[in-house]
Task: structure prediction
Amino acid sequence: MSTLRVSMLAFALAACAEHVGQTLPSAAPQAPTPESPRGAWLENSAEEAFREAQAQRRLLLADLWAPWCHTCLSMRAQVLDEARVPELANVVRLAIDTERTENERFLQRYPAVVWPTFYLIDPETRQVRGRWLGGASPKQLSQWLLEASNSPTATEALLRQADDFSSQQQLSQAEASYRAALAEADPAQRSRALVALISTLLKQAKFAECLQLALHEVAQLPASVSAVDFAATALSCADKAADPALARSTRSTVEAVLSRDCSTRAPGVSADDQADACDNLRSVRAALGDTDGARRAAEQELSVIDAASAGASAEVQAIYDWHRSAALVFLGRSEEAIQLLKERERALPQRYNAAHYLARIYRDQKRWSEGLLAIDRALAKAYGPRRVALLGVKASLLEGADRVHDARCVLTQQLAEYRALPAGQKRADAEAAVQERLQALSPPTEPCASP
Result:
């Protein structure tokens, strides 16, 4: 599933900063990994980053990421270093793990509804100079940084205004500014504006408008990361739209674009982005009733991942675990997926993703006891909104095992923990979904034990 497509819901880096060839005081450096990009980044230290940006008279680039986000990890492994994006040397870089409590004040002002989200911020005024949603190729990120750093054209000014509206949750104003920018945008700006606009429509639950935009625009987008992200968001709207005919028409149009982007990797498109295209192609073909076509998309997805991960470290291979395990399960090769994830858990014992994926597979196979063991392992390592979300998987496993009272207790705990999240990390839609699940269960017969 595309990271953009995770219902826009919720899911570090080496430290030190450079200035005119001199190293500034910073936190102790960490070895680069897919969760710790190369180069000079400050980790979860927003105020320090603002101070450094002011002192250096440079803009601040903030990467809003999460440990569960495969696109975030791919960007760290394949994009976010000065060798690929030289313009990174001209900004102060801040990495914000959106799951960590200490970042919630930053997230109130600069929210993430897509992972990753990049903000370019004026450190003096703290106004947004630019926002980028989702993955990007090195060329796209370089061009965006150059445009956002310079005096704006009329179109760029509209995009900056829209980005700032969006960061302040003024979504209707953001939508109007994105639409105005589209009327005169060049091709590069157009792709960026379209991804931002369709994301804004989804966030406002304007599903019909989202689908109409997709029908008009998706076939005109060139093969790129932006095309995959735009198509994925259109499918999220189709899943929620009230008009089945409009949803089906959109899916058919999107299917053709994803077929192109799954079968051939465009310049600058990463293996993770191509796998995203294949994953969404598999999903849309299944929704359209094309079972054979969906299987071909899953097989192509595995081919892309195998080529990209051959001989790579466990950290790099883990970028593709979500896609690989989902494709294997779809093809009826669940045991292969289970063995892969067990091996990944052993190789990367501090990570929770493999245990989470295992729990979901066991749930779907009705292997309740194994699933509960896996989800408890994941919960022991996870934190923040993601840990709260994983409680929902545990509740599903308990329901499947006919432990309805225990499931209700876990959902009650989950709802309480969602409500207790700080303002910058709250998930109103997730709270509502848990409340709905609780109401659907039979009334409690005894009190819950303390968690």
Q: What stands out?
A: The chain is about 60% helix and 5% strand. Residues 258 and 277 are 5 Å apart (CA to CA). The two ends are 32 Å apart (CA to CA).
